[in-house]
Amino acid sequence: MTDFNEPEAKLEALLDIINSSAHQAIAEYKKTGHGVPSADATTFHPLDLTRDTLALKKAIRLLEGAYHQLSSILAPPQHTVMNLVFNYNWACTGVAFRARLADVLDQHPEGLSVDKLAEAVNLDKVKTARVLRALTLMGCFKEVRQTVERDIFANNRLSLILKSANNVGCYTRLHSQDISKFAGVLYETMIDEEFSRSHEVDKAPQVFAFRKEGRKDPYYEAMENDEEKRDAFDRAMLGQSDVLGASAVLHHYPWNDISSVVDVGSGIGTFSTPLAKMFPHLRITNQDLPKVMTLAQNAWEKNASVTETSVLDGRMEFIPINFLEDAPVVGKDVYYLRHILHNWPDAEATTILRNIRKAMGPNSRVLIHDCVMFHTLQRPGAGTNGSSVAPEPMLSNFGAGSHNTYQTDLTMWFAFNSKERTLEELEIIGAAAGLALTQVYDLVDTMLMEFRIAGQS
Predict the structure, then answer these.
(1) pTM to 2 decimals?
(2) Is 342 a catalytic residue?
(3) What are the pLDDT digits (tens) for 87-125?
(4) CB–CB of 260/230 below 8 Å?
(5) What is the side-by-side strand order in the sheet with 316-320?
(6) Strand 447-453 relative to strand 435-442: parallel, antiparallel, unpaired?
(7) Which residues pair with 112 in a beta bridge?
C-alpha cells in the first residue's frame, strides 16, 4: 500500500489518476466511432449531444479534481490564491453572448477580422479584440492564421455554446449578468443587521442588490411582467439541466420496474416529457401551480406531434397542486422532485415531503434529484449506499472535480438564500417526514436519492 504521508508519493499518485482518467475520457469519445474532439473543431462532437454522458463525466470529475489538487501543491501559494479571484472570463463570456459574437462568426466559418466583427455588433474593435483574446486563451473561440490581416477570429466547439439559440449560452448570461451582481454584495449581506442571520428568501443577496439599485419587485415577480426575461430564464434553466447532466436519470434508474410517476413541481414537463417518450408503459402525472399547469399543457400541445399525442393519450395528465399545502395524487409508484427542495428552507422542505408521505402507498418511493454536498473528510461508511468517494490521495469529495455542485450551492444562496444539502441533511429532513434513505445514484453533478416509508424496505 502506498504511503501517502510521503509528499512525493502523493504527487505521483495524482499524476497516475490524471493519466488514467484522461485515457478513460478518450475511450468514451472513441466509443462513438468519431475519435476524440479537436480544439479547432467547428462542430460539436457527437458525444456532446448525447443525453447519457455519465461515464465521461465521471472521468472528467477525476481528471479535474486531480490536476487542480496537483497544481495547488506544486504552484506557489500566492499564484494559486490569486487565480481564485484574478478571473474575469465570466465578464468576457457575458459580452460574447449578449453581443452575439458567435452568431456572427457562424456566418463566416473561415474567420472574420475583429474590425468587421466589431462593426457587425456595433462595438469598439479594440475592446472586442481584448474580450476575444481573453476567451481564446481559455480555448473558447480561435484565432485564424492569415498571411496579411491579423486579429482574425472564428468559432470553435466551445464558442458554439455561446450562440443565442443555445440554452447553455442563456445559462452563462444568467450568471454573468445577474448572479455576479448578487455575489458582489455577499459580504455586505453577511454583516448587515437585517440580512446577516436570516435564511429567508426575502433576505437573499439578490434582494439586497436590487435594493441598492432602487428596485423593489422580487426576482420572479419582475420576470412575470417581462416575457423576454421570463423566456430567457426558462431557457437558462434548460441550460442548467444540460450542464448538470440531468437527463442521465432517464438512463440510470430502473424505470421499467415501475408503472406510475408523479413529477412534483414539474414545471412545464421538462423531465416528464422525455421520460414518457422513453418508457411508453409509464403513466405520468405532472403537478405544479395552476398557472404552470396551463403553460405545461399548452407547451405539450404546441410541441408534440400527432403521433406523440396519440401515443401519450391518457398516459400524461396535468393536475394543479400547491405542494406546501396539499398532498399529490395518491398511491403512485414514484414521486419525483428535481431541483425542488434546494429552493426551500428545512421547515418548508419537510412540509413538502410530509405531504408526499400522506399520498404514498406501502411500495411507493420518493426520488429527490438535487446537487449534494460532501465534506473533504467523509464519515465512516461513506460510499456504501451508492454515493462515490474519490481514490486516495484525492480529496474524498473529488475536490475541484465537484466544482459545479459547490458553485450551484453558492448560486442558490446568492439568488434565493437557499442551499444544496449534504446527504446527512437530506436524511434528517426525510426522517422528519417519515421517510428513510434506501439508495443513492451518483450522477456526478447531481445525485438521485431514493427514499421509502421508514420501517419498510
Answers:
(1) 0.92
(2) yes
(3) 999 999 999 999 999 999 999 999 999 999 999 999 999
(4) no
(5) 316-320, 283-288, 260-264, 334-338, 365-370, 447-453, 435-442
(6) antiparallel
(7) 153
